[in-house]
Design brief:
- There is one protein chain.
- The chain is of the alpha/beta class and 289 residues long.
- It has a single domain, classed as Divalent-metal-dependent TIM barrel enzymes (TIM Barrel, Alpha-Beta Barrel).
- The protein is built from nine helices and eight strands.
- The radius of gyration is 18 Å and the shape is globular.
- The relative contact order is 0.14.
- The structure holds manganese (II) ion.
- The site of manganese (II) ion (MN) has 4 residues, from loops.
Length: 289
């Protein structure tokens, strides 16, 4: 299992200086992997990022949320095509960095919708994801679709909703990406949805209910880590936290990061690394009970 940190724990800018802060901070905190947000693929130097990440001895993954201009569920075929082109560009970046997974809200825009998705829109999204899964596989990359709360997508908001959507994609290489922050809002509990996903769970975000320090909110991490152990989950587990102390032009406003929950990225990250590893070590003893 790879324990990782989202780059935005350390920086809102992914130019050379920002990348250095994020890569050095992730390694210093003790993580195995860094997740790079690809909200601005045009301006991203993936060759440079790949070298810096390899030099630090880290693994890498990448994520993004689409926007209204690249929404795969749009009724406008030109918008769907723009989304597919952007995601292909992101796959190029993942390959250039030496990564093997692209995750996040890559099946719709990451925004509050004012209406449900249309049947045509969901079908268009599923068709693009199926093509991208094949294209990604040629480069040794897999796709994992993040389940987010109702204010950030209208396509699915639960583990079971994601599984139903994936049944329509029809490609076993595409997996479910669960995030405890979103699960805490939408799911009945934090145990059963992990069991429901089972082997189709491919990526995990660990976030607190207010996106701050782990253990200071209402997320039932004990249930969640027990469930990961129960299904033998062996994929990435990535800490995600946002504060107004670190601002991303593309992400902070979309995610509603209006207040300051922490100021010291290094302390936050080191604490999260310990929290996640301690939780996993503890649940591994359950088989002795
Ligand atoms: Mn997330």
């Amino acid at each position: 299992m790879q324990i990782g940190a989202h780059g935005l724990v350390f920086t809102g800018e992914f130019d050379e200086a920002g990348l250095r802060r994020a890569v050095e901070g992730t390694a210093r905190a003790g993580f195995d992997l860094i997740e790079i947000p690809l909200m601005d693929p045009d301006g991203f130097d993936s060759a440079l990022a790949g070298r810096m990440i390899a030099d630090a001895g880290l693994a890498v993954s990448a994520s993004l949320g689409l926007t209204a201009a690249t929404d795969l569920t749009s009724e406008d075929a030109a918008v769907v095509a723009a989304g597919e082109r952007m995601l292909e560009q992101c796959l190029d970046h993942v390959a250039a960095m030496g990564g093997d997974v692209l995750c996040g809200v890559i099946y719709s825009a990451m925004q509050k919708y004012l209406t449900p998705p249309t049947t045509k829109g969901v079908a268009a999204s599923q068709a693009v994801i199926a093509r991208l899964a094949a294209s990604a596989a040629e480069r040794g990359i897999r796709l994992s679709l993040e389940v987010v709360n109702r204010y950030e997508s209208n396509v699915f908001n639960t583990s079971r909703g994601a599984l139903a959507y994936l049944d329509g994609v029809g490609d076993d290489r595409v997996s479910v990406h669960l995030d405890t922050y979103h699960m805490n809002i939408e799911e009945s509990d934090l145990f059963q949805p992990v069991l429901d996903a089972g082997p189709r769970l491919g990526y995990v975000h660990i976030g607190e209910s207010h996106r701050g320090y782990l253990g200071t909110g209402s997320v039932a991490f004990g249930d969640f880590f027990r469930a990961l152990d129960r299904i033998g989950y062996d994929g990435p587990v990535v800490f995600e936290s946002f504060s107004s102390a670190v601002v991303s032009a593309q992400l902070s406003n979309t995610l509603g990061i209006w207040r300051n929950l922490w100021e010291d990225s290094d302390d936050l990250a080191a604490h999260a690394n310990r929290f996640i590893r301690d939780a996993q070590r503890a649940v591994q003893t359950i088989e002795m009970h």
